Amino acid sequence: MSDPDLRAPSQIAHDPILAEHSGITALRLKPSRRGLGALLLRRLVLGLLTLLAVSALIFAGTQILPGDVASAMLGQQATPEAVAAIRAQLGLDQLAALRYLEWLGGILQGDLGLSSSNRQDIAASIAPRLENTLFLAGTAALVATPLALVLGWISVLYRDRWPDRAINIVTLGAISLPEFFVGYLLIATVAVQWNWFATSAVVHDGMTLLERLDAIALPAFTLVLAVLGHMMRMTRAALINVLSAPYIETARLKGLPPSRVLLRHALPNVLGPILNVVLLNVAYLVVGVVVVEVIFVYPGMGQYMIDHVTKRDVPVVQACGLIFAGVYIGLNILADILAILVNPRLRVPR
Description:
- The chain folds into 2 domains: 67-111, no CATH class; 114-347, Orthogonal Bundle (MetI-like fold), CATH 1.10.3720.
- It has helices spanning 9-14, 16-22, 33-63, 69-74, 80-90, 96-108, 122-157, 162-176, 179-193, 209-215, 217-242, 246-253, 258-266, 271-287, 290-295, 301-310, 314-342.
- It is mainly α.
- Helix 7 (122-157) runs antiparallel to helix 8 (162-176).
- The chain is built from 17 helices and no strands.
- Helices cover 72% and strands 0% of the residues.
C-alpha cells in the first residue's frame, strides 16, 4: 500500500481513518488568507465582467429584431407623425450606444425602466413573479438533491446489479424526454384522468405553504425529472472515482461494511464536485423554467417574459433576460467559490 504521506491532503483532512494512520493534515496546501481572498475576488470580478458582456449581447439582440416597436404599438394605421412621437417618447430616436449606457446606468441604480406596453414599472411587476420562479425552482431543487444523492449511493452500493441498472435506466430515460412532453403527459394523466392535481399551477397572495406546494406539484415534479438523472449520475461517477483511493482500501481492510464505507468515508470527499453539480442544476432550474411555466400557466418570470415577447415589449424582455443571466452567473460563481473552499487543492496555483 502507498505511503500515507503521499496521499491527497484533502482526503486526509476529511477522513478520520486516513488521518489516524498518517498523522498529517491538509495545512500544507492551505495558502495565505490573502491568496485565498485574491482568488475569490478574481472569480467575482470575472463573473461581473461576464454579466456586463451578457448585458451588451441582450441589448444588441433586442435592437436587431425585425419590425419597429412604435409601429407595433400604434398599429398599421398609425401616421408617421404619431410613430415619430412614440419613438421620441421611448427614446428610440437616440443612438443605440447612448440608449445602452442609459439602460445600464438605470440598472445599476435599481431602475429597470417602464414597460412599453402598459407603462408600468418593470421592477415592481417582476418582483412577485421572480419570487414565484425562485419558489418553484427551490422546491424542485430541495426534492431532487437528496433524492439524487440517495439514488447515487444506492447505485454504487449495488454496482453492476439490478438496482444499479434499474436506477440508471429510469433516470436516463427521464432526462431524455423533453420537458414540454413530460409536462403535457403529467397533465393528461395525473391531472385529467386521475384528477389528483389541477391542470394549471395558479398561485396568489394569501395562499398557505401547503396550498402553494399543492398548486406547483406537477411543474415541480417536471423539473425534478429534468435534473434528477444528471445529478444522480454525477454523484455515482464521483463515488466510483474515489473508491479506488488508498484510504477507502484502508477502511475496507478494517472490516467496515460497504454502506458505511460509502457514507462515512467516500461521500465526504466528493462533496466538492457534488455541490458544484447541484448548484449548476439549480441555475438550470431557474433559467430553464420558462417552458414549464408556460405549460402550466404558472405566474413566474418565464411566463411574464413570454407574454411580453408577443407584445414586442423590449424593456421587459431585456430586464427578464438580464435577471436570468444574473442568477445563472451568480450561482456559477457560488459553485466555484464553494468548490475552492471545500477542496484545498484548488487553492494552489498551478
